[in-house]
Specification:
single chain, 266 residues, alpha+beta, Four Helix Bundle (Hemerythrin (Met), subunit A), Nonspecific Lipid-transfer Protein, Chain A, 2 domains, four-stranded mixed β-sheet, two-stranded antiparallel sheet, 10% strand
């Protein structure tokens, strides 16, 4: 009988680096939004029927939620970690931001919403202790953990925006690293075990899926992909079969098919 899977230890993040990553990625989104004309703002996206204008507003409210939650009373105790956030709801990005989304997404200039969100984030996030508890819609979380979830949302929505506009938008390296690691840890939390090693160089390596645990030498079941493909797989922007066919995922070993665990959310 295989031993019971061990629960992965929560990963720690440098709060200052995560704050800087959120600021940098939001800056890339603001740069992409600058100068968009009415036709571009009206383009459809793959995000629940939103237009580009509405998606930009959604991104702004997702970051602005940090300031709003800091302004509310702290909950009595932490309930979830960053990795657990990604497995708590069918779509934690939508669950986290829906309560902050208002009609201003369509009536206020997207650039103004992004700028205001950036200003409030800069003013409050840096002045708040990283262990401050926030009453997020997914559960009570530490500020430093919640900021990592903002990296996930920004990275995912950057890809959605780039696809809608048909253009390239840069990814801040630290924001992409944080998003990759959190979603890798979420996979390990969703499918605990040690029979499959998932490699996402240069940012993350995790073991998952119940079964015989590998201890040394070359693992018998290995999945490897790049960070952007991993974000797309984890969030349903692409599927396992398509990624394998395109060569952006390699999988070796009889247990290496992790399609049953994907997407983590859509």
């Amino acid at each position: 009988m295989s031993p019971a899977p061990r629960k992965p230890r929560p990963r720690s993040y440098d709060a200052a680096k995560v704050r800087a990553a959120v600021t940098a990625q939001l800056g890339h989104v603001r740069d992409a939004a600058a100068g968009l004309d009415a036709a571009q703002l009206a383009l459809p996206t793959r995000c629940g029927g939103r237009t580009v204008r509405e998606l930009l507003g959604h991104i702004a409210t997702g970051v602005d939620l940090v300031a709003r939650l800091i302004g509310e009373p702290a909950p009595p105790a932490r309930e979830i970690t960053a990795a657990e956030w990604a497995t708590r709801a069918a779509n934690p990005i939508a669950a986290t931001t829906s309560t902050a989304t208002t009609a201003t997404e369509t009536t206020t200039a997207a650039a103004a919403l992004l700028a205001a969100a950036a200003d409030r984030f800069a003013a409050l996030a840096a002045a708040t202790p990283p262990d401050r508890l926030l009453a997020t819609p997914a559960g009570a979380m530490r500020l430093d953990d919640f900021l990592v979830t903002r990296c996930v949302e920004l990275a995912v929505r950057t890809g959605d925006l780039a696809t809608a506009l048909g253009s390239e938008i840069p990814y801040d390296r630290q924001a992409l690293a944080n998003a990759t690691r959190l979603l890798a840890d979420a996979l390990a939390a969703k499918a605990p075990g040690g029979s499959v090693e998932v490699r996402i160089p240069p940012f993350a390596v995790v073991q998952c899926v119940a079964g015989p645990r590998h201890t040394r030498g070359t693992p018998p079941n290995v999945v490897e992909t790049d960070p952007l493909t991993w974000l797309r797989l984890a969030t349903g922007r692409t599927d396992w079969t398509s990624a394998l066919g395109a060569g952006s995922v390699t999988a070796s070993g009889e247990r290496a098919d992790i399609s049953a665990q994907l997407p983590l959310f859509a």
